[in-house]
Amino acid sequence: MNKSRQIEIWVGLFMAIGFVALFFLAMQVSNLGTAYTGDTFRVTARFDNIGGLKVKARVTIAGVEVGQVTEIHYDPDDFRAVVEMGLQSQYLNRIPDDSFAKILTAGLLGEQYVGLDPGGSEDTLADGSEISVTQSALVLEEVVGQFIFGKGQEGKQ
Amino acid sequence: MIELFAQLGGWGMQALTRLGRAHLLLLPLLRGGLDILRRPRLLVDQLFSVGVLTILIIAVAGLFVGMVLGLQGYYILSRFGGETALGLMVAASLVRELGPVLTALLFAGRAGSALTAEIGLMKATEQLSGLEMMAVNPQYRILAPRFFAGIVSVPLLAALFSMLGVMGGWMVGGGMLGVDKAAFWNGMQGGIDFHEDIVNGVIKSVVFGVVCTWIAIFQGYDCVPTSEGVSRATTRTVVHSSLAVLGLDFVLTAMMFS
Fold first, then answer.
1. Using 50, 70 and 90 to split pLDDT, how confident is the model at B166?
2. Each residue of A106-124: pLDDT tens digit?
3. Interface pTM, i.e. ipTM
4. Listing from the earlier edge strand, what are the strands of the sheet with A130-131?
5. At CB < 8 Å, which residues of chain B contact A?
């Protein structure tokens, strides 16, 4: 095997390794390999306080990811936050419409996500429907404030 | 006193004219890209000496940097009970910063200095003038293939660095310290966005590839054609490339991740 052929083989190998590494980064390290790219349907929910919820946060039922938060905005008419979620279309007409939407935190310091607790209704969530029962995010300062206030009340009695 | 200002002014003018010459060189380098389409062989040879020979140091460095990140990250995160975020920490710091930056620094030391020395010596031994005598443009024939080989190599090397770093982090975190496998990889996949992190990291490494190779080639082509001149040019390549990479990294990070 002559020298120039060897060089060609090495360079080919180098390019192959480089592209395998890029592919590994894309599929194994980033969300590209796990991201749901199929059809979704839109569901909204109104929260008094969304805490640190962000767009692209997970939406889960029983801990399993069923969708993503697609948009968050503030509704100045009823002073609440409107969270739009895109749920995977395989769950269309499979989630009861009296389901309970909560903003939860993964671990003590983890990111916030939306958890859906299925209700008992016969009717189901369709595209564009709204979840009416919601629970806001737990904001630490408010909890501490309530605790201190409660202690103060106890002291007066 | 006046002498001091004159010196300062002379130094500034020199730096500016050098910067100007470097930019003037950029045009023939890009124009030489067309010649490479006609003779891809030139590029393949340079990819070997610039890219393939740099694989070893990149691979070893990437593996060890990842292992150290895994170890240090574990010690700190476990204080807060956050070992599950280890995968995300290792992957994010590698893909966003350490992969492109350390690859570029190692590339400047390993391949950039070699490019400068090679081109500088060609100039000192009048091989470049010889090519011109034969009506071959040395900028197209010698410089351009090296330039493009550098631009192609650095992103691939950076990807290799990041991949091996993640694996090193996993070896230490998952293998030695017993971090949960699913938490490690899921946390990573949940936190790393393809467009935000991976693509931006690749863009960074392309920019670093252009800058490092450009500096190396310019320093070689512009050096004083003596043995002392070549040695000074080689030193300047490493120093200037490293400073440019570190400075540009801040600017790019501020632009990309703000």
1. very high
2. 766 667 889 999 888 888 8
3. 0.83
4. A130-131, A40-47, A80-88, A64-75, A58-61, A112-117, A100-105, A133-135
5. 44-45, 47-48, 51-52, 55, 80-82, 84, 91, 95, 153, 155-157, 159-160, 162-164, 166, 185, 188-190, 192-194, 197-198, 201-202
